[in-house]
Amino acid sequence: MAHIRAVSTTSEALREVGGRLRSYRLQQNMTRAELALQAGVGLATTVRAEAGQNTSLETIVKMLRALGRLDALDAFLPPPLVSPIQLAAFRGHERKRARKNGRRRTAPESIAEQMNAEIDPENSHR
Question: Does residue 52 contact residue 16 with C-beta atoms inside 8 Å?
Answer without folding.
Answer: yes
